[in-house]
Amino acid sequence: MRMAIDFICRSIEGKVVWGEKSGYVYSVSTDSRDIGNECLFIALRGERFDGHDFVLEAFAKGAYAAVVDRDVPGEIPAGKVVIKVADTLKALQMLAKSYRERFKIPVIAVTGSVGKTTTKEIIASLLARRFNTLKTEGNFNNDIGVPLTLFKLEAHHQAAVIELAMRALGEIDRLSYMVKPHAAVITNVEPVHLETLGSMENIARAKCEVLKYIDPDGFALINGDNQLLRKTAANYSCRKYTFGYNNDCDFRIVKVESKNKGINIVADMRGKVYKMFFPLPASKLAYNVVAGVAACHLLGIDMHDAISALAHYEAGDNRLRVINLSWGGKIIDDTYNANPLSMEAALETGKNLREKGRLVAVLGDMYELGSYEIEGHLEVGKKASQNRVDILVTVGKLGKYIAQGALQAGMSPDKVYSFADKEEAFSFLCAHLDNEDTVLFKASRGMKMEVLVERYLDFMENRDK
């Protein structure tokens, strides 16, 4: 990256109030703990911090320029540049939009209620076989994360896959305005974020905001089994394709067979039938797989090359990550996030991966389900029973409804345990499990269940020594 101060000012409607109007920056940061030499520091405000209080620290660490929307306390060092704007968050997004426009490459936006991260990862891994591909890392999928991802674009990149998240109407519109996608994938519309959006219709409208920004020669790929999504997407004029099980889908899932090590999929891809293998044993992921392969095919990737690459897919951190233990046991770390549908897929994965010991599901609260909150947790409990979980451990205030749902579905009370926090759950796991058990961990990100995963893994590894 190399951005001139003049380019920055024009992009964000900013005014240099200290220093020279010349010079360049070579990276962008909103975190004073992560400052590169000759960096641009943008001072954002949060609920618990104000970046303006760290401008001098950023300069001391090597930042060349800072973007602010109020006066900075203290003395600005000589040789530094301060640019003032009306709103620093808006400036971050305006600058990201201008920077993205420098790159004439296909950018694929991925959104949806469930499975957008997995779909993004699949598309990026397949595209990487042909293109140098940038992708969203971690949870950099919001008003701050998306622009920071776009700033990582470099001259060598030939494609980008950007994940778009939202909690309210208008958010994906803002993100899409920055991203300027050539294509978009909408995985589905489900009762996630009902707490802030209020209705399924609003969720569909929010997801479809991305369609407004598709290139004239680009395309949208949407879940053809979701009638609400299809109806809402019909309001946009971009070229659209569908994927799913319905007979009228352009990319149709014909058959899915779950095996111990993955799923075999037969799919009709616009009139030609292909067989593909995906190395995670959860049939629910067939949607993500077919959507990912279809998107890459529409972008010019040879179908056989895509299918070959698919067989070597590796899950990212905290997303159905399988850790093999001695004596045949496994830890399945799927703590990145959770909702009822992804819980069901994870439980199926655990059932199919178990080899020797018991299947243990350690499940925590799912957030932002709104009016579906209690019902969603009860449903997960029923799915735990249906997937033959041997021991169910729930964590958190809402987790008790998962336990209740399992009991209602006929699971024996001596196999269901509920705990208020991770510490209590950890003590139980250490006392009752062994290294032949397959243990699934999953909850919403706010539960920070990855902490429990690492503690349990450390305990098991040390116990084996």
Describe this structure in words.
By secondary structure, the chain is of the alpha/beta class. It has 3 domains: 89 residues, 3-Layer(aba) Sandwich (Udp-n-acetylmuramoylalanyl-d-glutamate--2,6- Diaminopimelate Ligase, Chain: A, domain 1), CATH 3.40.1390; 208 residues, Mur-like, catalytic domain (UDP-N-acetylmuramoyl-L-alanine:D-glutamate ligase, 3-Layer(aba) Sandwich), CATH 3.40.1190; 143 residues, Protein-Tyrosine Phosphatase, Chain A (Alpha-Beta Complex). The protein has 16 helices and 22 strands. The strands form 4 sheets. The protein has a 9-stranded mixed beta sheet, with helices on both faces. The protein has a 6-stranded mixed beta sheet with strand order 17-18-22-19-20-21, with helices on both faces. A 5-stranded mixed beta sheet has the order 2-7-6-5-4. Strand 9, helix 5 and strand 10 form a beta-alpha-beta unit. The radius of gyration is 24 Å and the shape is globular. 52% of the residues are buried. The mean pLDDT is 94. GO terms for molecular function: ATP binding; UDP-N-acetylmuramoyl-tripeptide-D-alanyl-D-alanine ligase activity; UDP-N-acetylmuramoylalanyl-D-glutamyl-2,6-diaminopimelate-D-alanyl-D-alanine ligase activity. It comes from Thermosyntropha lipolytica DSM 11003. Belongs to the MurCDEF family. MurF subfamily.
| Overall shape | globular
Helix content: 25-40%
Radius of gyration: 24 Å
Q: Order of strands side by side in the largest beta sheet?
A: 9-10-8-11-12-13-14-15-16
Write down the domain tally. Answer: 3
Write out the CATH superfamily name of the largest domain: Mur-like, catalytic domain
Q: Which spans have pLDDT < 50 for at least 5 consecutive residues?
A: none
